[in-house]
């Protein structure tokens, strides 16, 4: 298993980053919030989870170990594959996921693309004893993105998740007042997704 990857960021796309490790470029599938913290040419260390299928070998990269843990636990629920697990950590913070499962908050879980009412109930039922209580930690993304053009990153993240340019622009405007001095792109993206799921 590849537990983490440390190297220089060689490229960042809409849904992945390439880190150069010992002359080899490793592509890591990442959420928009994680990608927003990376800069091409700068070193980065990302906890990773490797998903092996018959026809593919995919490495997922995360902001921190907490996010990675939620991604891996989520997949132990029946019907949850890596794509849905990644959508969960893209839309919700690790503590939000724990809170939703502990309080049996089906509505919050169904905001994740790919999770319906039945799926949310199954996740709650199967993970309630395994997920643990919220840890109270919050992401270090804020510090890394203080000088980032967060609007573009949030908008690109929303478009990457399937929203139209117009819808994502509207959502970015809606969350703009919350950006503050040091925008936390992951949190803003989640807030933007919330405004879209209400609309």
TrEMBL record:
Entry annotated with the keyword Membrane: no
UniProt-annotated location(s): Cytoplasm
GO cellular component: cytoplasm; Holliday junction helicase complex; Holliday junction resolvase complex
One term of GO molecular function: ATP binding
Domain of life: Bacteria
Keyword Nucleotide-binding in annotation: no
Keywords on record: Cytoplasm, DNA damage, DNA recombination, DNA repair, DNA-binding
One GO BP annotation of this record: DNA recombination
Parts forming coiled coils: none
Domain Helix-hairpin-helix DNA-binding motif class: 72-91, 107-126
Region described as Domain III: 144-199
Entry-linked CDD domains: UBA_RuvA_C
Record remark on domains: Has three domains with a flexible linker between the domains II and III and assumes an 'L' shape. Domain III is highly mobile and contacts RuvB.
Subunit structure: Homotetramer. Forms an RuvA(8)-RuvB(12)-Holliday junction (HJ) complex. HJ DNA is sandwiched between 2 RuvA tetramers; dsDNA enters through RuvA and exits via RuvB. An RuvB hexamer assembles on each DNA strand where it exits the tetramer. Each RuvB hexamer is contacted by two RuvA subunits (via domain III) on 2 adjacent RuvB subunits; this complex drives branch migration. In the full resolvosome a probable DNA-RuvA(4)-RuvB(12)-RuvC(2) complex forms which resolves the HJ.
Family of this protein: Belongs to the RuvA family.
Role according to the record: The RuvA-RuvB-RuvC complex processes Holliday junction (HJ) DNA during genetic recombination and DNA repair, while the RuvA-RuvB complex plays an important role in the rescue of blocked DNA replication forks via replication fork reversal (RFR). RuvA specifically binds to HJ cruciform DNA, conferring on it an open structure. The RuvB hexamer acts as an ATP-dependent pump, pulling dsDNA into and through the RuvAB complex. HJ branch migration allows RuvC to scan DNA until it finds its consensus sequence, where it cleaves and resolves the cruciform DNA.
Protein name, UniProt field: Holliday junction branch migration complex subunit RuvA
Origin species: Nocardioides zhouii
């Amino acid at each position: 298993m590849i537990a983490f990857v440390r190297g220089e960021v060689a490229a960042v796309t809409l849904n992945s980053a390439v880190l150069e490790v010992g002359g080899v470029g490793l592509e890591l599938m990442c959420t928009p919030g994680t990608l927003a913290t990376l800069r091409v040419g700068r070193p980065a260390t990302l906890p990773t989870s490797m998903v092996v299928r018959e026809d593919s070998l995919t490495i997922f990269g995360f902001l921190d170990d907490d996010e990675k843990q939620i991604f891996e636990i989520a997949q132990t629920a029946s019907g949850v594959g890596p794509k849905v697990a990644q959508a969960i950590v893209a839309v919700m913070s690790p503590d939000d996921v724990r809170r939703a499962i502990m309080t049996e908050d089906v509505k919050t879980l169904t905001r994740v693309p790919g999770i319906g009412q039945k799926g949310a109930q199954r996740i709650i039922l199967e993970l309630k004893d395994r997920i643990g209580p919220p840890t109270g930690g919050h992401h270090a993304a804020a510090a890394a993105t203080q000088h980032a053009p967060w609007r573009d990153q949030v908008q690109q993240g929303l478009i990457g998740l399937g929203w139209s340019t117009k819808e994502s622009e509207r959502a970015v405007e809606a969350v703009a007042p919350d950006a503050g001095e040091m925008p936390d792109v992951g949190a803003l993206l989640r807030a933007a997704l919330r405004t879209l799921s209400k609309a």
